[in-house]
Amino acid sequence: MITTSPAADMFDVISPVTGRVVGTHPRGSADDIDDAVRRAHEVAGWWGALGFDARARRLDAWRGIIARRAPELAELTHIEMGKPRADAMLEIAMALEHLAWSAKNAARVLGRRAVRSSLLTANQSASVEYLPLGVVGVIGPWNYPIFTPLGSLSFALAAGNTVVYKPSEYTPGVGVWLAQRLSEVVPEHPVLQVVTGDGSTGSALCRSAVNKIGFTGSTATGKKVMTACAETLTPVLMECGGKDALIVDADGDLEAAADAAVWGGLSNAGQTCLGVERVYVHEEVFDAFVDRVVTRARTIRAGSGGNAQIGPITMPTQIDVIRRHIDDAIGKGGRAVLGGLDAIEGNLVQPTILVDVPEDSVAVTEETFGPTLTVTRVRDMDDAVERANASRYGLGLSVFSRRRGDEIATRIRTGAVSVNSYVMYAAVPSLPLGGVGDSGFGRVHGADGLREFTFPRAMTRQRFPSILPLTTFRRTPRIDALVRVLVRLLHGRH
Ligand code: NAD
């Protein structure tokens, strides 16, 4: 939770775990943002000129410090946004995998490489390289305050950009901590600056002289970010909300699928962009699957203590959204086979499993961001695919099927699919992560994630004069006749 401090330009962070103030941070103004962006431009040349290898060494050193001090970072994450410390450690582990990958692969992915020329351009040697944009503005959410921003920060830095980062107002301490650790291994210049604040600070970053915005947050805020960036034609990376589905085929491993649905739906108190919110199950195994899910989910307790498997809901306003979704699901004929409206206890929400919820309920169509699942019976896998794809979101999806997993996966319109597991595509460092539709566009992670923070520069070098000089007023009628023949020869057969 956040509140305004008596000093108008400061805000407090109130821990959802203890209810106490755990930090007070400046609310960055437009001037603060502009100053940071100006400094970032001043040092961008230095950081870019260091080259891939020297940058990789610094980023590896950053990774080493984060790893050695990981318990401290996990504690800070727990106290600021409420997830259990062990889950915060898992988040750090995943984030560092991607940081390592970006440092190791930037030269290979972005460095200059030769490409083939063509018959008409045979006298040219051609190459392409991917250059840093300059200064990247990153705006982050609170639900994965390490993994999510590092997806942009690591890749933007590895590509040679400097960064101004506006962390969520719920987790500013985590953002500041990450930047402080980088400054220990890059003491010369502030290549990563953090400006804390709320939406107004984020909005100022969009209007500043950054060369790109890497945004992760809700779809509604994403639209505001794009509107602001349109004024200056600033490109944007949009990592927005989701309503991910999990599909269970008649021959799927029910134990594994139930385990994935429960973890995917309930972990982090359901506050996961890639969280499972909808489950579609073949009618032949529906009852057996629901039994398994309920048996598992019954053992999970939300709490603020050290032993709780899931923490509190971080944003107080989200409680109303969760209540509205459960209420709508039940009002439209759904049943809570576990939890329900009574599962909401202050800022804690106990696991809630809903069945028979119609597809037009907001519990199925909108992002709930709570520890709830709708589990729906489907006729067959065509039915499951159609319902899964009906969402306006398209981030990730899981499918459990022994024989047809790949086939079902190829029919899904989301940025990623995992067959017989949950969310593993986000853990494989060489894979891109991102969505389609209302989940956004652009990619973090992998080669696409590195290219996201660059622009390609194409280059040709003439090796010898062309025997067919085309781009000159000295072109003869003979050459024009030859071009006509060539056009027919090269393309007319198709
Ligand atoms: P949010 O949209 O409320 O806030 C995100 C960030 O935007 C915050 O830093 C906030 O201060 C800033 N912001 C708010 N108004 C702004 C404005 N007008 N201009 C610029 N910045 C502004 O989202 P949240 O509650 O922090 O995060 C949860 C959302 O993020 C969920 O929808 C979740 O699905 C999504 N998310 C997506 C991914 C992904 O990879 N696609 C990852 C994590 C979270």
UniProtKB/TrEMBL annotation:
GO molecular function per UniProt: oxidoreductase activity, acting on the aldehyde or oxo group of donors, NAD or NADP as acceptor
Gene3D superfamilies hit by this protein: Aldehyde Dehydrogenase, Chain A, domain 1 (3.40.605.10), Aldehyde Dehydrogenase, Chain A, domain 2 (3.40.309.10)
Domain Aldehyde dehydrogenase: 8-454
Record PROSITE patterns: ALDEHYDE_DEHYDR_CYS (PS00070), ALDEHYDE_DEHYDR_GLU (PS00687)
UniProt-listed InterPro entries: Ald_DH/histidinol_DH, Ald_DH_C, Ald_DH_CS_CYS, Ald_DH_CS_GLU, Ald_DH_N, Aldehyde_DH_dom, Aldehyde_DH_NAD(P)
Alphabetized SUPFAM superfamilies for the sequence: ALDH-like
GO biological process: aldehyde metabolic process
UniProt-annotated catalytic positions: 239, 273
Taxonomy, superkingdom: Bacteria
Protein's name according to its UniProt entry: Aldehyde dehydrogenase
Family: Belongs to the aldehyde dehydrogenase family.
Keywords tagged on the record: Oxidoreductase
Database matches in Pfam families: Aldedh (PF00171)
